[in-house]
Amino acid sequence: MPRNTHDTAPDTERGDGQPDSATGRPNTAAQPGAWRRARWVRVVRPLAAVLAALCVTALATVGTLRNTVLDRGYYQHVLDEERAYDRLYDEVLVAPEAQPVTRSLLARLPVPESVVTANLKTVLPPATVRELTDEQIAEVTSYLRGEKDTLSVSVDLSPVLANMDKLAEVYLGGLVSQAQGRDKADFPAAVKRIDAALDDVAAGRRPADLPTVDLSDRAVRDISKLLLSAVPEDQRTSLRPQIEGALGVGDVATALAAVGPHVIGGRAGAGADEGEQELLRITEGGRWDVVKDLDSGGVYTGPLEEARGFTRLALGWVYPLAVAVGALSVAFLWLTGPRRRLRRLRAVGWSMVAGGLLTAGLFRLVQWKADGLWGTAPGSWPPSLAVLVEDLESTALQTLTAAGASAALTPVAVGALLAALSYVRRRPRAAQSLSTRGRTGMLAGLSAVTTTAVVLGVTFVPAAASGSGSEQALCNGSARACDLRYDQAAYVATHNSMSTTADRFISPLQDGDITAQLDNGARALLVDTHTWERPDQIAERLKVSEFAPEMRDKITGLIDEATPTEPGLWLCHAVCRGGAIPLVDTLRDIRAWLDEHPGEVVTLIVQDGITGKQTESAFRKAGLEDLLFTPDDDPKAEWPTLGKMIEDDKRLVVFAEHADGPAPWYRNFYRYGMETPYAFSSPEKMSCAPNRGGTGKRLFLMNHFITSGGGSRIDAREVNAKGFVLDRARRCEAARDHPVNFVAVDFANLGDAAAAVDTLNAGRRP
Asked: Are 229 and 117 in the same domain?
């Protein structure tokens, strides 16, 4: 038999490292890679694999930190995820326990605290808070990355002061411009004029342009006492006759000049300059040093300094060292691996897998030990603030560990793929038998099957899971509500809906505008219609004031002279100069919202300061006539179901507090409905006693807000809580033997009145 050619090969060509038959020594000269089997290589390879795994862990960990705790976008993501800016207004600043914190902040603003808190979202809107917060985040992350040597976190208060100036211009612009005889207000000139008057008073001169006013005897005594309180005691007796005499004839200017040198003295000369310097002193140059206040409040920044040392080490040394050592380790594993190149991937792949698993374990350990990493909130903090901080910490930790898990997954997946490739010896026999064209066709067929399965799954699986392919009708967001009559269902009603922060009303009673209120679940709007106030309207309001009759006339004349009326129909809260939005434009917004939400029924209850004819004209101009529902002439008649009203597309019900027509759809609310009192000064005084409309009506309005010198954010958060609303609604329903229909609230975005209304509707039967 012929011998196999391999059998005839001399030993010297085998290259197997076995002893040569001629010399008896290992055959290393014929095998260039024989050094891979050297003892030192076998010792160093495991060490290189361990180093490679550790370097993968270091790179994944540092990369995760760089993209999270060292990146400003990470913090804004956490703040947005927890709705931190909304919760700041809706939970923290309205909590009674937050008042000391609020006062500490507001002490830096040169305005009374009550003015700021009443107009909080106007003076300090969420957009401004976000901007200020982002600035601080940038400072902290720069410090942690080692780009700055000291932690300097300060808040620029100029945006807040700018918002205050803007607010003043909106509501004082007309007054100042008319007094100056200009089309547009010149505020610097007005301030200069005030400074000149102060200079006169400081010098004991009677300031010009101050009118005389008629004062009652009691007012003369009270004002004299107030002015003399700033005068040294030894000089009060000599000044009293002069001050009381001047005030007795209404000469306020002379009375002010008498006490001016004692009250103002030489300070008036500096005027605006001193005021500016005082503002800079209060705000420490126009910026609030946060670090100083944190340290003084017991919240130390030492942990940030420790974290900075760690991050500088990680970025400055660990990361570049891991890159260098990892590259060398992988190169060594590759060069010292088996002769077959695919097999060389095995050690590299398992090292990456091990590094990924170590990374995942490290972040799991961080999550497990997180309670020990966070500090506790100071006991002086209000509970709502402590809860917000805890939620932010929890979300930050979850985001960090999720990012770490994602970073760990990459080396695990890549390493597993490399390791799997290292075990492939040859192409499968079936694949070897296919031509190139056949393998291409098989791949195309598999791709088509996969694509079809994905498309069919996305299309049909959701419909199958829902149990029905047809849409179910919803009425005011609920299928069950379609069977409830209009007078059986409950609705969230926003009190003074037009008086909003968004529309820059003075002392607003809601935050979002009317469209936002509808978006957030309000289905009844309590609004006030007016024309711009005239002198006789001002006089009418002054009748309930403490001013003497002669002074009322004087004030009316001054207002008529300084603030002329603006034409048109408006939605105002009492006085239009304190905030006003156009009636017709607002009705058009409501029309647009109803068109976008065809399954919703909305009610307007109008405190009508304009005539029924004017109201009818406004609704016609807004294009709402086809949506208006006309109630039955008989107030005792049953109302249709919400489903029927939606089917007929008559989805807007409009009531008036005073008028009754002439339009058939414009009915007097108290013919059809009854209410509770509305002038509650505290939550514990809320009652269900009959008020306007008496009892026994088909519609029931529960006034559910606190009026104590205006709306109260703090009380709104308490009374709008779901449990509080449900408890009072059930008490009132028992007292009136009728379900509550309209739950009228201030600041509807606080608390959870909408959830309470949902619960009421869920328990009602057609």
From this structure: no
The residue among 424, 459, 489 that closes a domain is 424
Instruction: Say whether both 252 and 333 belong to one domain.
Output: no
Q: Where are the beta strands (DSSP E) in 566-612?
A: 569-572, 580-582, 602-608
Residues 6 or more apart in contact with residue 38 via CB below 8 angstroms: none
Residues 6+ apart with CB under 8 A from 637: none
Distance of CA 215 to the CA centre of its chain: 48
Mean pLDDT within 353-360: 88
Give a yes or no: residue 655 inside a domain. Answer: yes
Domain encompassing residue 635 = 480-532+567-762
Strand bridging mode 580-582 / 569-572: antiparallel
Contacts of 556 (CB under 8 A, 6+ apart): 535, 536, 538, 539, 542
CATH classification at residue 678? 3.20.20.190
Q: Say whether both 699 and 656 belong to one domain.
A: yes
Residue count (the chain): 766
Q: Is residue 26 part of a domain?
A: no
Query: Do 609 and 724 have their domain in common?
Result: yes
Tokens of 674: 């009854």
Q: What is the DSSP letter of 123?
A: H
> Of 226, 247, 282, which residue constitutes the final position of a domain?
282
Structure tokens at 376: 């506790």
Geometric angle at alpha carbon 90, from 89 and 93, rounded to 5°: 50
Amino acid in position 247: L
Residue 543 forms part of a structural domain: no
Q: Do 195 and 216 fall within a single domain?
A: yes
User: How many other β-carbons are positioned within 10 Å of the β-carbon of residue 381?
Assistant: 21
Residue written as token pair 């909304």: 86
- Helix 319-335 × helix 39-67 angle, to 10°: 150
User: What residue type is 161 in one-letter code?
Assistant: L
The pLDDT tens digits of the residues spanning 10-46 come to 433 344 444 444 444 555 444 555 666 778 887 888 8
Quick one: residue 617, left, alpha or beta (phi over 0 = left, psi -120 to 50 = alpha)?
alpha
HSE, CB side, 13 Å, CA atoms: give it for residue 491.
Answer: 31
Q: Could you write out the three-class secondary structure of 631-687? A: CCCCCCCCCCEHHHHHHCCCCEEEEECCCCCCCCCEEEHHHHEEECCCCECCHHHCC
CB atoms within 10 A of CB 629: 18
* In a domain? residue 406: yes
The residue whose two tokens read 């010792």 is 43
Q: How many other β-carbons are positioned within 10 Å of the β-carbon of residue 415?
A: 24
- How does pLDDT run across 538-575, given as a tens digit for each residue? 555 445 433 445 444 554 554 444 445 678 899 988 77
Residue carrying structure tokens 């040597």: 149
| Tokens matching residue 318 | 């660990």
Q: What are phi and psi of 681, to 5 degrees?
A: -90, -10
What's the rounded Cα separation, in Å, for the pair 506 and 114?
Answer: 12
Considering the domain architecture, whether residues 205 and 130 belong to the same structural domain is answered as no
User: Tens digits of per-residue pLDDT, 429-468?
Assistant: 544 454 555 544 544 443 344 333 333 333 333 333 334 4
C-alpha–C-alpha distance, residues 71 and 484, integer Å: 53
Beta strands in 22-152 (DSSP E): none
Q: d(Cα 247, Cα 255) in Å, to the nearest integer?
A: 7
Per the structure, the count of domains in the chain is: 3
The verdict on 698 and 668 lying in the same domain is yes
Q: Partners of 581 in the beta sheet?
A: 571
Tokens of 337: 């691996």
What does the DSSP 8-state code read for residue 91? Answer: I
Indicate the pTM of the whole model.
0.58
Burial status of residue 128 (CB atoms within 10 A of its CB: 0-12, 13-18, 19 or more):
middle
Q: Which residue stretches of 338-488 are H helix? A: 341-368, 370-373, 383-422, 429-433, 436-466
The Cα 318–Cα 315 span in angstroms is 6
* The two three-digit tokens of residue 586, written as one number: 């607002």
Q: Which of 261, 243, 263 is nearest to 253 (CA)?
A: 243
**Residue 307 and residue 257 share a domain:** no
Count the Cβ atoms, other than its own, within 10 Å of residue 153. Answer: 21
